[in-house]
Amino acid sequence: MDPLPNPAPLASKLRNTLVRYHSIGDGEHKNVVCYIFFQKDATVWRKPSEEFSGYLYKAQGVVEDVTNRIVDHIRPGPYRLDWDSLMTSMDIMETFEENCCVMRYTTAGQLWNIIAPREFVDFSYTTSYEDGLLTCGISLDYGEVRPNFVRGFNHPCGWFCVPLKDSPGHSLLTGYIQTELRGMLPQSAVDTAMSSTLANFYSDLKKALKT
């Protein structure tokens, strides 16, 4: 088990990595993408990850609410467990400052438990970005793995949320996700799980914001 990292340089590196992903134009992203699909709440692309042998997924959709409230529902805190259908538990293990922490969370089994429940320990950081916010994270090798869980690993992930200029009550939410589920899994099961997870994320979030 590694010791906890110094949060300041890790937060800076994480933010810079996500901003670099976000600076890739849609045209450039689509030229190297392997797969693209649309659904009612979001559009999702994927391309080979630079971090591991899987994919970097990009999801984007418009959400009807203000930026701060949307990000409060996404980042570690009291709202996330109430609406995220995949997450089954969440604990804040360490808090460095109000916008920076280490959290441990678990996810439910998926695809009739072909994918068993997973556990993640993530460093999480929320910061300003343009007129909105960026909340991002990366997994750490920290803490003992609990029984009955496989420890997954999130390579740099994050959500950019910025208000729409012509409609301040709506925000553009763009996510970058690259999750290594680990364990002996068929690639087709991983691809199906990631697609359904991102589709449900937007629809579940929108329902939660309306309550």
Explain how this protein is built.
With 211 residues, this protein is α+β, with helices and mostly antiparallel strands. It starts with 6 loop residues before the first helix and ends with a helix. Strands 1, 2, 3, 4, 5, 6, 7, 8, 10 and 11 form a 10-stranded mixed β-sheet that branches. Strands 9-12 form a two-stranded antiparallel sheet. Helices cover 28% and strands 39% of the residues.
Task: Give a concise summary.
This protein is of the alpha+beta class and 211 residues long.
What characteristics describe this protein?
211 residues, alpha+beta, Alpha-D-Glucose-1,6-Bisphosphate, Chain A, domain 4, ten-stranded mixed sheet, two-stranded antiparallel sheet, 5 helices, 12 strands, 39% strand, globular
Present the secondary structure layout:
Layout: H1 7-23, H2 26-31, E1 35-38, E2 43-48, E3 55-63, H3 67-74, H4 80-83, E4 87-97, E5 100-107, E6 118-129, E7 132-139, E8 150-151, E9 153-154, E10 157-164, E11 167-177, E12 179-180, H5 187-210
Organism: Promerops cafer
GO molecular function: cholesterol binding; cholesterol transfer activity
GO biological process, one term: cholesterol transport involved in cholesterol storage
CATH topology: Alpha-D-Glucose-1,6-Bisphosphate, Chain A, domain 4
Overall geometry = globular
Reported CATH architecture: 2-Layer Sandwich
End-to-end gap: 41 Å
What would you report as the Rg, rounded to the nearest angstrom? 16 Å
Which CATH class applies here? Alpha Beta
Please give the domain count. Answer: 1
CATH superfamily: START domain
Tally the beta strands.
12
Oligomer: single chain
Protein name: STAR4 protein
Pfam family, one: START
GO molecular function, one term: cholesterol binding
